[in-house]
């Protein structure tokens, strides 16, 4: 027993010692495990910190690269990236110049005119019931139109048409029968546009519209030709192409661009097709975005072949003041060879607008688009106008013999006197690569809508104009109120279709120079734009893409409702407050 106990004790002792040895071993093992696991954990932590750092470095690098790549984009493509960043919720997209308003009366008139034209068409094919129409008949069209107006009295668009008929007769001296026939044939789209440059009565009416809106009360001698095109941008494409084909601009020539400017106009001259040198005339924000005399003096350089501008400007949305217009006109007197190309699409939103076309008609190619004022971007309606006596025709007539011979060949298939073909008719021909000149021209239903828009403006006593100007200015007021910026010192030249904001402009009243400089040095304008998009679903465009010299953003006042501009103001304040906090925490 004792032995047993001893054995047991011994066993116990042995067990104990074994156990304690095991425990010690276990402890050691446990300690080792702990030690190694800590090491592993530490190592893993190190690796993950390193990995995360590397990832965030790479992410930051990628983001930087992304921003850098994106900054290469035109503001319009950039806007698409911002929209992606803003996600799929509801976005406040003030990046678009597409208006959210439209004129209704001339559209109602269009549809009613269409119904009348259909009636006319069916009248001349009564014997064919199988949905076959005929051409309208000129004879008696006036009387049938009066019956149509009487039958539909009170229907929207009818009184407009009645007024339009008496207006074109009483004020423009046009023949009602010819006008109605042109409109019916045009709206039915049953013939190629003839003349291809523009339908005859349509041109006379649009001419009056341009006189009213682009020339106003300014003295203007002589007449001008109009080429109806698919919007202002098509006009630019045609003009650049034709000028190159006709040796009016050649690779390596210098042109002057009024800056900031609608981005495509910076890009086109740089394309391989043109390879033009550009000198910029920079409008001065401190001088209400007008050009200083010093900048305008750049036009005195005889190497400058053409001056290309958007007036009122995009994005500053300011019209050239009378002093600048007169100054340019003086330079043109000194440089009668200078070609001016002016895109005046926003002119109708300005108070008392006068185009350079009014002051320098012989030198100026006028481009106008109906897109913005009538809310008709989808219609694609624009015009090019040149004066009957212009330097472009003179330049063509005085080209070197070799070039004249080439152009003689180019245009000989469309006229027996190619050397006498005017600039504007060459423009028409080149819009269809010359050989297809007989199918050139804007579609006739488009021309009809253009005519109705023009007549509307001629007849409306500016009620529509006043309403639109008020609409966009109220939006500006709403935005600026929210930003805490007073608009008391209204600039008479401001058009307010767009407005430009910058860190400087937003903070200069409430914060010191140091904060502004710190933000400008440490945060790019596009970073702020991405933040606005990602966090606030607000999309604005970068001003630098339009050639502004300092970082800025373009806010379109055309395409959102007033309350949405309040929300944009709030979002901008929030993001700016965070940057100011970052500055204080640095
Ligand atoms: C200066 C300028 N010209 C032309 C256009 C476009 O005109 P359209 O729609 O007639 O092609 C725009 C549109 O934003 C513009 O800002």
Structure characterization notes:
With 586 residues, the protein is of the alpha/beta class. It has 2 domains: 67-97 and 463-585, Aspartate Aminotransferase, domain 1, CATH 3.90.1150.10; 192-459, Aspartate Aminotransferase, domain 2. The protein has 21 helices and 13 strands. Helix 5 (158-170) crosses helix 16 and helix 8 crosses helix 15. The protein starts with a helix and ends with a helix. Residues 97, 231-233, 262, 310, 314, 343, 345, 369, 371, 377, 382 line the site of pyridoxal-5'-phosphate (PLP). Residues 97, 231-233, 262, 310, 314, 343, 345, 369, 371, 377, 382 line the site of pyridoxal-5'-phosphate.
Key phrases:
21 helices, eight-stranded mixed β-sheet, Aspartate Aminotransferase, domain 1, globular, 2 domains, alpha/beta, disordered N terminus, 586 residues, Aspartate Aminotransferase, domain 2, single chain, three-stranded antiparallel β-sheet
Task: Give the structure's gist in a few sentences.
The protein has 586 residues and is of the alpha/beta class. The protein has helices spanning 2-72, 75-86, 105-123, 141-151, 158-170, 176-188, 200-215, 232-245, 264-267, 293-296, 322-334, 356-359, 391-397, 401-411, 423-430, 444-459, 463-483, 503-507, 513-522, 525-536, 562-585, and strands at residues 92-93, 224-229, 254-259, 277-284, 290-291, 304-310, 339-343, 364-369, 382-387, 498-501, 538-539, 541-542, 553-556.
Low-confidence stretches: 1-28, 48-53
Mean pLDDT: 89
For the biggest β-sheet, the strand order reads: 2-9-8-7-6-3-4-5
Helix content: 40-55%
Total domain count: 2
Second rung of CATH, namely the architecture of the largest domain: 3-Layer(aba) Sandwich
The major sheet is characterized as: 8 strands, mixed
Strand content: 5-15%
Q: Distance between termini?
A: 84 Å
**Which topology of the largest domain does CATH recognise?**
Aspartate Aminotransferase, domain 2
* Broad CATH class of the largest domain: Alpha Beta
Helix/strand/pairing class, anyone? alpha/beta
Tell me, briefly, the overall form.
Answer: globular
Rg over CA atoms, rounded to whole Å, is 35 Å
Q: Please tally the helical runs, counting DSSP H or I stretches of 4 or more residues.
A: 21
Give a count of the beta strands, DSSP E runs of length 2 or more.
13
In the CATH hierarchy, what is the superfamily of the largest domain? Answer: Type I PLP-dependent aspartate aminotransferase-like (Major domain)
Bound ligand species: pyridoxal-5'-phosphate
